[in-house]
Amino acid sequence: MSQKNTRNHQSTARENWILVGAVVALAVIPLVFVRGEYGGADGEAQQAITEIQPGYEPWFNHFFEPASGEIESLLFATQAALGAGVIGYAIGLYKGRSQRQKSDDE
Fold this sequence. Notes:
By secondary structure, this protein is mainly alpha-helical. The chain contains three helices and no strands. It has two domains: 1-58, no CATH class; 68-106. The protein has helices spanning 3-33, 41-52, 69-105. The radius of gyration is 23 Å and the shape is elongated. The model has no long low-confidence stretch (mean pLDDT 86).
């Protein structure tokens, strides 16, 4: 590896660790400084709507209501995992294409 590539690799590695630290800080800081119960935005929105207009009725009901909170959490986690998988696949696909194009250019 040439000296230029070594410097670029070290710079990229340092930037990656800085980004990891920033993500961890963004996740931990609210847990440290915000006290109380964490709730979802849906419940907060519903409460705000009923305060503003007590007689409000929703336009439609849920298509599917999970039997318990655990099932609801499972479905949410599954949805998040599938989304992360699709995004990871797309990133890997484009990274592989750019590396292949770079090696073809050389």
